[in-house]
User: Fold this.
Amino acid sequence: MTTVINVLQALILVLGAPLVSGIVSKIKAWIQRRQGASIWRPYIEIAKLFRKEDLVPPSASWVFRFAPKVLFGTTICAVAFVPVVHPSALLASRGDFFFLVYVLALGRFFLSLGALDGGSAFGGMGASREALVSTLAEAPFLLGLVAISILAAHADIAGMVMWTLQRNVFDISAVHILAFTSLAMVVLAETGRMPVDNPTTHLELTMIHEGMVLEYSGPSLALVEWASAVKLHALLALLISLFGPWGMASTVSVWGTGAALLLYLAKVTVLMILLALVESVVAKLRMYLVPDFLGVAAAVSALAVIFTTLVKG
Amino acid sequence: MGLVAIATGKFLSSFSVFLFLTVLLMVVARRISTSVLLFSLQSAIITAEVFAMGVREKLAAAYVVGALVLLIKVIAIPYAFFRLVDRLKSPRDVKASTTPTQSVFIAGAMIYLSYAAVHSFGQTVHVPEDALAAAVALILTGSFLMVSRKKALMQMLGLLVLENGIFLAALITTFGMPLVIEIGIFFDILVGLLLMGIFTFRIRDTFDHLDVSKLRRLRG
Assistant:
């Protein structure tokens, strides 16, 4: 029964992901007083791209074709670690949070390789920027998770979620606040959202993610787009399960799972509204200010780790 | 009643954690208006703590003080600041002399220091340790803001943060000062703000900028 729920959780994260990005762009459109595209549009686009021809630049090698598949595969692998409605996950006992962080990094490494292999100037520029951002985001991502795992005395995500679930809402400590702040900043950077990267446009010399995928087309592009949507959804779900898991089904039952699913939908909606608000209010940072942004995240997460000594002692 | 007491006690200690967050955001804020908004948020948290204290200790005076904090620090002072920023027409930048990352580390060190400082005190006297540490941290970061920001307006804001810290410390350790003294302090703040507002206008008119690091010569 638990396995069924775990498979269901992974399916929710993977299949619901285009809907999440659709809803975020719809809310952004509303804030800008536009009508906006339908929230189902990402599905239609992905389906359309899968039917199209896959064009490969003549100078590209097998890496270019291989990269989107690795990216999608690693993202799916990361999804299998994230609890949604029940404090367990498909691969929870097979790896810890280090694995989660680096499996995401592996996908990004291959996407950068693919972008370099494509041979366009924008691809190379995007790849070098992506390398900068992901190098700087790695430390706060890891340290934020380390802080929580020290408190929970568990290294796997499901164990950390289980520990938080057994606590009272009022027992939040400084560690949780600091870790949440740094991880939220990391999520913005990792998913290429507004203060770091602009997900809506190809028309800027400042683009990071969009620059990397410029040479891709057809099914490859569909995989890349889908993978980035899944990554956004999975990281939002990770934030929810680490910092606000209350309401998850602690026992395995149909009613409990259903209620937990409804609560999860409510929580993810709140996060999506927050994300859309941040993206509409905050201006994009100049490329040279991105290290400052992530430096603050790193400092906050280092503080979170230091604070665990206070909370325990 | 038992449940209410427990809830308010928990509330007092866990909400002061959010004060740390406002402090950290304040030292990285790049614009004056952001800092003022954060100050308003910080005062709102303190208002909530005053009300929680009033509920727990059954103090009628606490409600009056809470209402005063809400009125003056959450609404009136930020409003006055926004008017001031508007009228001064000076650039919005706070002119920090430390980079954001350095500021966060310094603020973090101060928070750690305040925890270490109140730790022994909190064990002998029965007070919520988180809240008292937050009060000390507000006092320290308030003075840090005053020292490290070159804009005259930010020095006013730093002083107000420092005052928030003193107010919170008094609230946590002695359940607030007598009402008359509290009202006197609020009056002091308002008059002080008024004077400093006039001073910033004078600085701007005589020197054409608000950068206090460049005030080296006397000008009449």
